[in-house]
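Dear support,

I submitted the protein below through the web form. The confirmation email said the job was done, but the results page showed an empty box. After a refresh the structure appeared. I'm attaching both so you can tell me whether what I see now is the final result or a partial one.
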Amino acid sequence: MEPKRNKDYPSKHLFVLKGKAVVPAESLAEWAEQFDGNREAFRRVALTKIGKITISTVFMGVDFTYGILKRKPILFETMIFGLPHNAPDTQRYETWEAAEEGHWKIVETVKSIRKVKPNGR
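What the results page shows now:
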């Protein structure tokens, strides 16, 4: 027996990029195409390496408010890899522009923290 298809697709929680603009996906196939194979560069807002720390900001394509919050979809994410355990490592954004701005703020914060020597010296 073939599984039932969800007649309500496109899901109101799936989005695609048209340039830097976010638009609702017309189908699950359209959404999946942006995440197929080696298309990460298309979705990458910024990637910065500072020593052993990597800061990556990407378009996720899924609304991380899950429709629960009455606000614009949260579709972009910055992750920081290589921080000490339990350090905050994720920020999320609504737009490409906000994600880009947030990425560079985090880069500047990491750079300023790296200048501080242990014990504040």
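Response: this is the final, complete result; the empty box was a page-load delay. The first strand starts at residue 15 and ends at 18.
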